[in-house]
Amino acid sequence: MKYTYFITLLLFFSTTAFSQLRDNSKLSDEQKHKVAHKLIEINSPYNAIPILEELVKKHPDSKKYIFKLAEAYFKSRNYIKAEVLYPKLEENLSPKNKETPVTIASFHYAECLKYNAKYEKAREVFEQFSKSNYRDIKGANLKVLAKNEVKACEFAMQGKTSDIDVEFSHLGNNINSNYTDFSPSLKDDSTLIFASMQADSVIAIPYGERHDEHVKLFESKFENGAWAEAKVIKELKNKNGHSANGSFSADRKRFYFTNCINKSDNRVECKIYLSKLDSNGNFGKPEKLGSEINAPGYSSSQPVVGMRIIKSKTSEKSKNKPKETKEEVLFFTSDRKGTLGGTDIWYSSIASDGYMGDAINCGRNINSVRDEITPYYDTDAGVLYFSSNFHAGFGGFDVFKSKGWNSKWQKPENLKKPINTNYDETYYTLLPDNKLEGFLVSNRVGGYGLLHPSCCDDIWQFNYKIPSILVINTIDEAGNTISDADIKVISGKYSSVNDSSSYNLDASIDFDTVFANEDKHFLKVIGIKEPLESYYIIGGNEKVNINVTSTGFNETRANFLTDSLSKPVSFKVNFGNANEEIEANLIKVTINMQKGNLVYQPFVPATIEEKKDTVKIASTLQQEYAKVVNEPKSEIYLEDTTKKKVVEEIDFTINLTFEYKTIELTGKNKLTLDSLVSILKKDPKLSIAFTTHTDGIGSENYNLELSQKRAQFLANYVLKSGVPKRKISGAKGVGESKPLFPEILPDGSDAPTARAKNRRTEIRLFKM
User: What's the rounded mean pLDDT across residues 402-420?
Assistant: First the structure.
């Protein structure tokens, strides 16, 4: 049905799944099931799907057939269909229940939820799985992985986005096919090398016959504003296997790539080869690298060359400049002995004569018990980019970066959205001469897929929009620098907001705090030559609020807008004195602070918790409840599975607030919710329903989804506190659809106080 290549434990793994011309009509149902099972075993889930769909349709209650079909969907990356099937297996995840065995189906179900961006539900299932009676197969450690995935889901729920705007473009059908296309690498400024089968229709192979359809390396020229039709690089073609994962050395004279062969035991074994280019750019005969790289019996793949400049040390008295030497290293992935998990990233030094040093593991800061793949080393920045399905991310494989060299690496940092999504992102690569552009491979929405939207990887090009750089200096009336000034820069998108509303500073508490950056290489990339100790990154269509306080000085506030190109279009000072200088995309703001003791209320980001007075909070809530519970109630009909029940309805509104763009409660709100739990526990006849509301900032769909997640979070919180499930009558989010107050005033300005009141949680108590 489908032949596709994407990443797994074996580096660029293949599901050898063609549409095989075989008549299964005379087989019994059990024989068909065995055939489907075998197809999945040999990495051919697409062939198994139609057989299993027929069996499930014929036997809709068969857990055996349902499980196998769910697994076939999962392995073919059809997570939407798999998510529907797994719950039908009725596995009991309760750690107290030992009767119903928990299988890998529950773990895969949670993975499907995560792939489908249902992070709160995924977190819940992963947590339940980690505490279940599941027995790990030796070496699998799925219960340990489930605990790690709980943290990953909590990270994903924060929805962190890149500091810089990013645009994506699909490379089109001359590069991307309905099969998987991957491993992009530039031969020169206008020639792309990549791997693919370059087929757009199902490939039919008579059953039992040998097939010669393999992944090959292709070349395409960028001509007249588009990529030309791709052509096979015949010199690198592997007649008996697959060629892929190519990468050039810095001088473009050597090309490292991978040859992979399907083994008889259904494994795919890969080895790294080298092809030297002649003066005309033609590829020479490939040579397999030695055992230092290609360990016998293991796979090595995804080679990429990195380089750093090493300066020799000189004495202070020496007038000679330190000598510079270049150290070249080959990074690659392998499952060889010494690997921490499925595949790790390794490196080997390349001597000037081409000799390869022993392979060394990049260490535990990079590698994990799962898979780290598709390395790319930015020599200028000294940063390793790679993909991992272990480190906390949004989907399966996310892209991470870590600064360092050899085995000494900093803690990996997720590149955040939109580089990463709830799908798989791999092969992150920056252009050699423009580090604001690059390539990425992903099965995200918008690519080509033969059988379903997320089946196959495509190659995308991305472009970081050049941001503005904000530098703030604080001086006193005499022009002296104030070194202990407390500076807060808070920004938010204003593209949907009236210009005049952006100067209402009270609204700033809803925006993200922008933190100072000290990455000197980044400044070089975007063309800032002036040496800066620290700076703030400001994107396009933002409103930026600056708040500066210092002991003995009056507080100063200033703000400005940026246009779509990140250029400042206006600047205003609300309190105090300040001025700005604009040089291209560098914004210099000088705050002139005046002595005095008039200090206005500073900005307080939502992440700062208030001091907690548990007794006072609980007492106030109890008093409020006592007051409303003694008021006249309206009788309503509450639907029940057997009959309608007459109950008393108590409207009880609590202003529960959440961290910005997350489902985490702020400060004392958790204590408020705990007190509500106490009330529920004391009255056995009392049940509760949550309705959460957002303000109008953001899209309607985003606010609806966010409010629903918050309502579900509240319900889960109450359940985990020991309140029986039957006492929760509902948890619903309605987004921005039911505001209490207008958020835009008649003169077109913003009404932040109204917005704050509209962000509310309505709690209805029902007494039977």
Answer: 92
DSSP string, 683-697: -TTEEEEEEE---SS
Contact of 94 with 126, CB cutoff 8 Å: no
The alpha carbon of residue 730 and the mean position of all alpha carbons in its chain are separated, in whole angstroms, by 31
Tell me which residue of 734, 763, 739 sits closest to 675, measured CA to CA.
Answer: 763
Q: Which of 550, 520, 549 is nearest to 533 (CA)?
A: 520
**What span, in angstroms and rounded, lies between the C-alpha atoms of 264 and 145?**
30
**From CA 218, how far away is CA 459, in angstroms rounded?**
13
CA angle 85, 418, 180 (to 5 degrees): 60
Cβ within 8 Å of residue 303, ≥6 positions away:
245, 247, 256, 257, 258, 272, 330, 331, 332
pLDDT in tens, 675-689: 778 777 877 777 888
- Matching fold, domains 468-592 and 614-767: no
Which pLDDT score, from 0 to 100, does residue 151 have?
94
Buried b (16+ CB within 10 A) or exposed e, 614-635: eeebbeebeeebeeebeeebee
Q: Among 266, 243, 258, which residue's Cα sits nearest to residue 197? A: 243
Confidence (pLDDT) at 654: 62
- Residue keyed to tokens 């392979």: 359
The two structure tokens encoding residue 693: 């509301």
Decide if pLDDT at 615 tops 80.
Answer: no
What is the residue-averaged pLDDT of the chain? 81
pLDDT at res. 637: 38
Q: Which of 28-32, 705-709, 716-720 has the highest mean pLDDT?
A: 28-32
CATH node for 166-313+322-464: 2.120.10
Residue range 86-108: average pLDDT?
Answer: 80
* CB contact at 8 A, 549 and 602: yes
What whole-number distance in Å separates Cα of residue 764 and Cα of residue 676?
12
Q: Indicate the burial class of 135 (C-beta count within 10 angstroms; 0-12, 13-18, 19 or more).
A: exposed
For residues 58-71, one letter each, b for 16 or more C-beta atoms within 10 angstroms of the residue's C-beta and e for the rest, the string is eeeeeeebbbbbbb
Q: Is the bond leading into 418 cis (omega within 30 degrees of zero)?
A: yes
Element (H or E) spanning 169, and its range?
strand 166-170
Side-chain-side CA neighbours of 153 within 13 Å: the count stands at 26
Q: Which CATH architecture does the domain made up of 614-767 adopt?
A: 2-Layer Sandwich (3.30)
The three-state secondary structure class of 113 is helix
Report DSSP state, residue 161.
B
Distance CA 431, CA 439 (A): 8
Write out the H or E segment, with its range, that includes residue 665.
Answer: none
Distance of CA 673 to the CA centre of its chain: 30
CATH class for domain 468-592?
mainly beta
DSSP-H helix ranges across 492-595 = 520-525
Q: Indicate the pLDDT class of residue 542, thresholds 50, 70 and 90.
A: confident
Collapse the DSSP code of 19 into the 3-class scheme (helix H, G, I; strand E, B; otherwise coil) and give the result: strand
CA distance 688 to 718: 10
Cβ-contact 537, 467 below 8 angstroms = yes
Q: For 465, how many CA atoms within 13 A lie in the half-sphere containing its CB?
A: 20
- Helix (H/G/I), strand (E/B), else coil: 243: strand
Pair 412, 391: CB distance under 8 Å:
yes
Residues 60, 66, 72, 77, Cα dihedral to 10°: 90
**Interatomic CA distance for residues 422 and 80, integer angstroms:** 12
Give the pLDDT of residue 40: 87
Distance from C-alpha of 668 to C-alpha of 645, rounded to nearest angstrom: 36
CA angle 532, 542, 540 (to 5 degrees): 75
- CA neighbours closer than 13 Å in the CB half-sphere of residue 744: 11
The conformation of residue 610, written as its DSSP 8-state character, comes to P
Give the separation between CA 192 and CA 172, rounded to whole angstroms. Answer: 13
Give the per-residue pLDDT at 632: 45
Angle at 269 between CA 267 and CA 272, to 5 degrees: 165
Domain ranges of the chain: 166-313+322-464, 468-592, 614-767
